[in-house]
Amino acid sequence: MAFGGRTLAVVMATVLLAVIIQDFGRLMVRLGVFSHFYQHHPGSCKPVPGMPLASEDFHTLSDGLTFISSGAMPPVVSDNFRLYFRQHNIRGRIFLYDLKLPDKEVKELKVVTSDTFDESTFSPHGISVWEDNTSGRHTIFVVNHPLRELAPDTVEKFVFLPATQELKHLATFSAPEMRLVNDVQATGDNSFYFTNCHYYATSAGMMAEVLLDLPWSTVVHYDGTSYTVVAEGIKSANGIAMSTDHKYVYVAVSVGQELRVFHRKTDNSLTLQQAIPLHTLPDNIMVDPKTEDLYIGCHPIPLKILSYLEAPIDKIAPSQVLHLRMSKGNMTSSQELLYDDGHMISASSSAIVFGGKLLVSSIIHTTIICDVNVPV
To answer: Which of 80, 108, 193, 360 is the most buried (most CB within 10 A)?
Structure first.
């Protein structure tokens, strides 16, 4: 049957409209517009004593000592985000918290600077500690978004001096492979993985990647000499972590709303083992040093976290903690350990359970410590 010009135009317009409606519907689902959750906590919760706002990431050692990065301000944030930082006097710092003594205040670690590091421009994001079990030395790698115009992201290397409670700066790493860096995972005293959560370090570029669902994010490894892309084709690689036996690397895929599990080879290359759908926007991943379980701070309603980061003075965003049990890189079970509507803690970013306590940090809100009165 032949179509006339007008009939064909109507058919084409109808098809185009259907495609637009379908894509718009998918976008609404991805943004969590129709999502609903029920609030619950594993026990009573309170703010961590002495902890300022905006403590985005941390690394917990097997003895409960936890290094917390605070004051991350990536170059893509809004003017309202910057105003929020000024109003609350938020600045770049590293804190030490002992989960064995959860009622004791955190300790701000003094930074011993070097010729390559300016503490006044420090904006720490992801953090990872390499623990030398023989010498007891703790080498700390921190993602930095230097607070200077057009300054590229870097990874800063420190050594912890326990006698004086100081961080001594040792080196600054910078390379073209560092785009918009989010998190870092140490693999040695002078080597690490890092995630590029977006290709473009601009607000417009980042939003284009998110809205167009572009898989332009990468994972890169630095071996002490050179940088190698070891995973790509990812929709916003966020947090990264490694199993204690160093055989598996976990990457939180934020826009893709999944956890990618990679098998790590001896040359530090990664082979994808599985992608686990999470149906939430995962942020940072913590590995339980004793059980190998994973704890992930999440943003369950993406639209609300986007709105919150645009206007943190006026809005809130829900927080969520997932607990995944793992065996040889495979998830055996999962549970939602915490969901808060955003009044107690907005925009949860990292979480860990230690000694019957749950520690949860936030991108720019309160860090909390909770009793765990439920099975984990």
So the answer is: 360
